[in-house]
Write a structure and sequence with these properties.
- This protein has 339 residues and is of the alpha+beta class.
- It is built from nine helices and 17 strands.
- A hairpin with a 4-residue loop joins strand 6 (93-96) and strand 7.
- The longest helix has 19 residues, at 316-334.
- It is globular, with a radius of gyration of 21 Å.
- The chain starts with a helix and ends in a 5-residue tail after the last helix.
């Protein structure tokens, strides 16, 4: 399954090549042109030269870690790449470097902690990655400073049409975009699989400036908080209630006409949808909409529980309905919709 391959691929920000190669191989026969820019964005074009020029983006990168120091004992110190809550790191398994060296994130055992330490959540500076090496010299034969480490999480379907795995932010968006490339469109569709979104929307800034699109749509795995401890009015999104449309987040205000058009399409075609009800965070639309003289932009997202952690949960129905809604929206662009 495509989502399984993408989820299990390693692609921490700045190290997206494995994900990029999977996507490139899968879509090469469905597009007119493929190229990779200097920063590493993958751009696939259908209908080149036709009007309008539309950019649909999904980012390839995931949050993870980078090796910053090797102790004399062979234990690895690290820095976080992207936004990760320190509290989810302890005892998680990881894969380090291009050779996927297995490791586990360790900390001082609770038996050895004093009362003060037990009352304070461990910070990542107190943690290390254990790859089973007995010395710095032995560790250096397998790992180098600057190597990336990603969570070692296998994709699995479970429950009622649910799936769990790592990096659903934003391998679900990549999946939706790849499905859209199977269609035919009478306008220039630029499918852009961006890099380094998790560390500042960097790839989207470069790609959008080069492309200069007339419309931008971002596909995302977004925050979901339909869990105990959160009041219903504070839910960002809910799993199983359909793909989510953003009105505003910390990086952009969505183009109102684009949102209204997707709402109309969902309602007329009996597709479930929901609004993202918080304004925290952001995505590649934050850079795309500011490009050159400005680009009307919006976001279509799949709700993900436990986002930015070693494992997230999605509804496969939400994923499928996001594919359907995107397809309908692109057809209305072909029929003359303009924001």
């Amino acid at each position: 399954m495509l989502l399984k391959r993408l989820s299990e691929a390693l692609g921490v920000s700045g190290n997206e090549h494995e994900v990029r190669e999977i996507i490139k191989e899968a879509i090469k026969d469905q597009v007119d042109e493929i190229r990779v820019d200097t920063l590493g964005n993958l751009r696939a074009v259908k209908g080149k030269g036709k009007s309008p020029r539309v950019m649909v983006a999904a980012h390839m990168d995931e949050v993870g870690l980078m090796i910053s120091w090797i102790e004399k004992s062979g234990l690895l110190r690290f820095r976080k790449v992207g936004g990760i809550d320190d509290r989810v790191l302890v005892s998680k398994t990881v894969l380090v470097g291009k050779d996927r060296i297995p490791g586990v994130i360790g900390a001082k055992a609770i038996h050895l902690q004093d009362p003060r330490e037990r009352e304070t959540p461990l910070k990542y500076e107190d943690l290390y990655i254990d790859i089973g090496a007995k010395s710095k010299e032995e560790a250096e034969k397998k790992v180098k400073l600057g190597d990336f480490a990603a969570f070692a999480t296998c994709y699995e379907e479970f429950g009622q049409r649910k799936a769990k795995g790592k990096a659903f932010d934003d391998r679900v968006g990549c999946t939706v975009l790849m499905e859209a490339l199977k269609g035919q469109y009478e306008f220039e569709l630029n499918a852009v699989f961006t890099v380094q979104e998790e560390v500042g929307l960097r790839g989207a800034a470069v790609a959008a400036y080069d492309l200069d699109p007339q419309m931008g749509l971002v596909l995302e795995g977004t925050t979901c908080s339909d869990t105990p401890g959160t009041d219903p009015e504070g839910y960002a999104t809910e799993v199983g209630k359909g793909p989510a449309l953003s009105l505003m987040d910390a990086s952009s205000i969505a183009n109102k006409k684009m949102v209204q058009e997707m709402v109309r399409l969902a309602q007329e075609n009996g597709l479930p949808y929901q609004f993202r009800r918080t304004t925290m965070g952001g995505n590649d639309a934050g850079r795309i909409h500011l490009t050159r003289q400005g680009v009307p932009s919006a976001s279509l997202s799949v709700p993900c529980r436990y986002i930015h952690s070693p494992v997230s949960v999605i509804s496969l129905d939400d994923l499928e309905n996001a594919v359907k809604l995107l397809g309908l929206f692109l057809k209305t662009v072909e029929q003359g919709f303009r924001p």
